[in-house]
Amino acid sequence: MPPAPVGRAQYLALPLLLAGLACAGDAGSSGFDADSLRTDDTGYALRFERRPERIVSLIPTATEILFAIGAGPRLLARTDYCNYPPEARRLPSVGDGIRPAVEPILAFRPDLVVMFAGPDNAPSIERLRALGVPVFAVYHNSLPDLYRN
User: What is the pTM (predicted TM-score) of this model?
Assistant: First the structure.
């Protein structure tokens, strides 16, 4: 049976990871469980000693989800296309989410970057990770991808 259509309120594909990262209680609280984190779609295992507080989102759906779960205050920057909810538009943009320039992202000193795992982004993902910035990279080209994530 094919999956049901996904509406705006049902865009909960990433919250399994993002909820744990972004809104699992105050920093240092027992609500944040780093051991429960999973690998992203590039096989990268995310490990944190504390909950990320400085997040840059380069995927519009992830930006929307982060706001929906109450993590909007932890977002520092977005892409030109991350325009919902309206509060997202108040954040500075780092440009495009595909083949993003690394320097504008680094200027925010993020402790997490959420971005698309496509081949065009591989150089940016690799460079950010080489510089010690955790990147959660996902594919979501189809509804099954969204459900899997």
Answer: 0.77
